[in-house]
Amino acid sequence: MTFKNAPPFTVIKDTREQDGYTFLKEKTRGFECLGMINKKLDTGDYSLLGFEDKICIERKASTSELANNLGKDKYRFLKEIERMRAFPHKFIILEFTLEDLMNFPEGAGIPQENLNSIKITNKYMVKMLMEFQLYDNIHVLFCGNRKNAKLTTTSILKRINEMYTVGRKI
């Protein structure tokens, strides 16, 4: 059996994404990334050039960022979740573990003097992530750290490119 390689792809990184991933030009067996462009995405932090209506990846670097999105920025973030519904492939990539989330606010880097003002709980954040999966069909992936999160994001983008160009490779 021979398999046709997928064509090269270009990653789109939203212009508002802060401290995000860099995708360099890279070619390995059966995989070629032409690099990355910065472009405003209406929804999410990452997509693929030519497949902007198919794939949406939202990245969260820390439990504090997630808490902020589900707390004081809740209505803005929920509008983004609502826009994600239109995508056949949607992901929230978390650069932390479920254990990190369950320990929140411990280890979240929040100054001691601010801990008493935190109103959001770890249980509420887990509830919301579960609802995003169940009601919005968004894949929520706890990747553990930045390196694993970037590898996961790269793999997702590669698979989506293959899916829409050459089909499944086994």
Topology summary:
Blueprint: E1 9-13, E2 26-28, E3 31-38, E4 46-48, E5 55-60, H1 63-70, H2 74-84, E6 89-94, H3 98-102, H4 122-136, E7 139-142, H5 146-165
Parallel strand pairs: 1-3, 5-6, 6-7
Antiparallel strand pairs: 1-4, 2-3
- Give the SSE order as H and E letters: EEEEEHHEHHEH
CATH domain fold name of the domain at 51-165 = Rossmann fold
> How many helices in DSSP terms?
5
Task: Characterize the overall form.
Answer: elongated
Would you give an account of this structure?
- The protein is α/β, with parallel strands linked by helices.
- The protein has a domain at 51-165: Rossmann fold, CATH 3.40.50.10130.
- It has helices at residues 63-70, 74-84, 98-102, 122-136, 146-165; strands spanning 9-13, 26-28, 31-38, 46-48, 55-60, 89-94, 139-142.
- It is elongated, with a radius of gyration of 17 Å.
- It starts with 8 loop residues before the first strand and ends in a 5-residue tail after the last helix.
- The relative contact order is 0.18.
- The mean pLDDT is 92.
State the gist of this model:
This protein is an alpha/beta fold.
What distinguishing features does this structure have?
5 helices, Rossmann fold, alpha/beta, 35% helix, single chain, three-stranded parallel sheet, 170 residues, four-stranded mixed sheet
